[in-house]
Amino acid sequence: MCRLIAVRDATPFAISAMLRPLATIARRSKEYQGDGWGCAWWNGGVWERHRSLRPIWEDDLDRFGSTVALLGHARSAFRNEGIAVENNMPFVEERAAFVFNGELRGVRISASGRIGAEKLFRFLREMGSETGLESLRHAASVLRKRSGYVRAMNFVLASGPVLRAGTWYSEDPEYFTLHLKRDGSRAVLSSEPFPDEPGWIPVPNGETLEVG
Length: 212
What we know:
This protein is of the alpha+beta class. Helices cover about 20% and strands about 35% of the residues. The strands form two sheets. A seven-stranded antiparallel sheet has the order 3-2-4-1-10-9-11, with helices on one face. The chain has a five-stranded antiparallel sheet with strand order 5-6-7-8-12, with helices on one face.
């Protein structure tokens, strides 16, 4: 299962400063997170994106500038299948961007996509989940009802620089609990607290929230 971060701030921050903790988390993870990685950052009107098949901890993270909104994702490919850069998140369409970690079994939805996470992204968009938390909460509820079993479903869906997230898991809370840190105008959501950094709080299971 993958590792992710989402960062929102009122003022620009260095992208590399947020990616380095993600790289450390991915490298130390109990599950292998080296099947590629990606990030997307808001550039005043569009999402720009970088994706790679290299493990994030082996890549050059100093190539990026600054932004006010960032999504990052380190991939652990399900059953070691579909390892291709096109399958790496974040997925980006128009003003929307998306990262996910978890596992849903027996999902009954009609949506296009190369892999399951991309189908979830399209389904959430079709359900109008970019319009606000209530729509996102409803869509996540529909997804759970249309799944045979939800081991975990953690995701961030961006609408422009506005980042909204949902979390749900049925097992392994130590691994699947998201964590949030707010510091002034900055909000950071992460699969795990950044190493040696205090101030993180666990996000309750089943929560839907806006980051920043």
